[in-house]
Amino acid sequence: MSDNSYKKVVAKNRRASFDYSIEENIEAGIMLTGSELKSIREGKVSLADSHAAEGSGELYLYNCHIAEYEKANRFNHAPLRPRKLLLRKKEMQKIIGKIKLKGYTLIALSLYFNHKNKVKVELGLARGKKQYDKRQSIKEDDWKREQGRILRDKK
């Protein structure tokens, strides 16, 4: 395993693959304060319902809940504040163009530390699933589970 492939995942959005069909993955940096970083190191972060959207020509991460750091005195952060995403300008313009297409959204898939101890967000360019697509996903998961049981019992 090389040093560049190291990822220490802190939070994962487990419902994302059930609610959305993810077409493209994007890695982005995130601008944080000191108390937010310490809370993330303790694992007090939730990505449920978090998404990225454009605001004044930049991309921001919304609804990412990072709990307040208990040991911070005066300079604690708001748990649900919008956080700026760090991307190159061309990448950002390309992503904003795709988001503006009908039906696409940018959702947070995971939050992790990379090999340089920087916090990164894995974003997914996704399209929402319909109810029948979700039922199909459940059927496929059940069938895979059943196949595993059959193979395990044969041995």
Automatic annotation (TrEMBL):
<dbReference type="Pfam" id="PF01668">
    <property type="entry name" value="SmpB"/>
</dbReference>
<dbReference type="InterPro" id="IPR000037">
    <property type="entry name" value="SsrA-bd_prot"/>
</dbReference>
<keyword id="KW-0963">Cytoplasm</keyword>
<comment type="function">
    <text>Required for rescue of stalled ribosomes mediated by trans-translation. Binds to transfer-messenger RNA (tmRNA), required for stable association of tmRNA with ribosomes. tmRNA and SmpB together mimic tRNA shape, replacing the anticodon stem-loop with SmpB. tmRNA is encoded by the ssrA gene; the 2 termini fold to resemble tRNA(Ala) and it encodes a 'tag peptide', a short internal open reading frame. During trans-translation Ala-aminoacylated tmRNA acts like a tRNA, entering the A-site of stalled ribosomes, displacing the stalled mRNA.</text>
</comment>
<dbReference type="InterPro" id="IPR020081">
    <property type="entry name" value="SsrA-bd_prot_CS"/>
</dbReference>
<keyword id="KW-0694">RNA-binding</keyword>
<protein>
    <recommendedName>
        <fullName>SsrA-binding protein</fullName>
    </recommendedName>
</protein>
<dbReference type="InterPro" id="IPR023620">
    <property type="entry name" value="SmpB"/>
</dbReference>
<comment type="similarity">
    <text>Belongs to the SmpB family.</text>
</comment>
